[in-house]
Design brief:
It contains three helices and two strands. It is mostly helical. A two-stranded antiparallel ribbon has the order 1-2.
Length: about 110
């Protein structure tokens, strides 16, 4: 369906069309849905099309996905060690990730 994910990207033109029609979307659709459902419904209603780019974001719970420099975003990593592993990887400090488990090579200090 094009939405309902962790990342949505809009062009300037799409956002201008939205701002020109936002009040109508709020009035007819309400604001009780999540932001992705609201924007998908509103953008469809006002005629803004969409494209899907599977390379922009791909949900994955392994910090190893952070090795893919072509991604614009990564799925939230809920374990502190995995979050730190991803941050290290994208900061140029590689780690060995095997079957979704990261070996930081140091003790993670959690405050």
């Amino acid at each position: 369906n094009g939405f309902l994910g962790a990342v949505e990207v809009f062009s300037k033109v799409a956002m201008q069309i939205y701002f020109d029609n936002a009040e109508g979307c709020h009035t007819t659709m309400g604001v009780n849905a999540g932001e992705d459902g609201f924007f998908k419904g509103c953008m469809d209603a006002i005629g803004v099309g969409f494209m899907t780019d599977p390379n922009l974001f791909n949900p994955d719970i392994s910090p190893g996905v952070c090795n893919n420099e072509g991604r614009a975003a990564f799925h939230p990593l809920k374990q502190p060690v995995n979050w730190q592993c991803c941050l290290d990887i994208i900061s140029g400090h590689p780690h060995n990730v095997v079957y979704g488990q990261c070996d930081l090579g140091y003790d993670l200090k959690i405050a």
